């Protein structure tokens, strides 16, 4: 059974049609690369899956059950987490504090409850170990590399043990070595049974970690095929319109 099924997802903003009848499915432990030029509808589709706004038309199914997300917490409660391109981290806090931001653990009896820093540091360390990241819970985020920051953002999604992790351009504007770190993190998510939708402009990244690639052009899905059955040249042609569909 598919983990996520999108059926005929359409989104309009007034006279602008951002998405036109998009179908997409993903299974547990699978990674799907979502590609397309700027304005193709990738971010809109991700925001619909993440619960930022509902589709104008169409249906979202989680493990075969139809769902309707009114806000991001609805998607999170259905097992969907998103890592945005800007990561939304607080530079002045430690890695552990960022992992638990908004979901802090507390100890003691009300009204004398206080933050349980030891428990949060321990759990953050376990999450970084599971991801095989060198990030340390007590390190300040402002002192971290781009790859380490991604590890913090991904560890934060793991707190709720999601079924699906959405990643928006995770390897943009970081070094080659840090790109390798992030791709290894994605592979670790797959190995632990998490599904991943990866939005990226970087063809090598998609072909390295994804099982399938879906291409959007002007809000319409023009391809959805296994990585083993396509090439970077074909995907590029689909993105720019030199190839109509595949």
Automatic annotation (TrEMBL):
It comes from the Bacteria. InterPro entries: AAA+_ATPase (IPR003593), ABC_carbohydrate_import_ATPase (IPR050107), ABC_transporter-like_ATP-bd (IPR003439), P-loop_NTPase (IPR027417). The keyword NAD does not apply. The keyword Nucleus does not apply. GO terms for molecular function: ATP binding; ATP hydrolysis activity. SMART domains: AAA. Keywords: ATP-binding, Nucleotide-binding. Residues 4-243 form the ABC transporter domain. This is Sugar ABC transporter ATP-binding protein. It comes from Sagittula salina.
């Amino acid at each position: 059974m598919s983990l996520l099924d999108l059926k005929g997802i359409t989104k309009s903003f007034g006279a602008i049609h951002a998405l036109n009848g998009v179908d997409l499915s993903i299974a547990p432990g699978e990674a799907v690369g979502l590609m397309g030029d700027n304005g193709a509808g990738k971010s809109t589709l991700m925001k619909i899956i993440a619960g930022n706004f509902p589709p104008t038309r169409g249906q979202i199914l989680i493990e075969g059950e139809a769902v309707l997300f009114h806000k991001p917490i609805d998607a999170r409660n259905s097992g969907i987490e998103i890592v945005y391109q800007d990561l939304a981290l607080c530079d002045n806090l430690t890695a552990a504090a960022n992992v638990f931001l908004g979901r802090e653990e507390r100890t003691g009896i009300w009204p004398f409850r206080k933050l349980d820093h030891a428990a949060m540091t321990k759990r953050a360390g376990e999450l970084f170990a599971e991801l095989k990241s060198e990030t340390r819970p007590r390190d300040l985020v402002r002192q971290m590399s781009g790859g380490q920051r991604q590890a913090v953002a991904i560890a934060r999604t793991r707190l709720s043990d999601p079924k699906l992790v959405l990643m928006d351009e995770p390897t943009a504007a970081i070094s080659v070595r840090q790109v390798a770190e992030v791709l290894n993190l994605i592979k670790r998510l797959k190995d632990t049974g998490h599904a991943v939708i990866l939005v990226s402009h970087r063809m090598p990244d998609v072909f390295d970690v994804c099982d399938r690639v879906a291409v959007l052009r002007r809000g319409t899905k023009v391809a959805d095929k296994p990585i083993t059955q396509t090439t970077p040249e074909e995907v590029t042609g689909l993105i720019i319109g030199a190839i109509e569909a595949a």
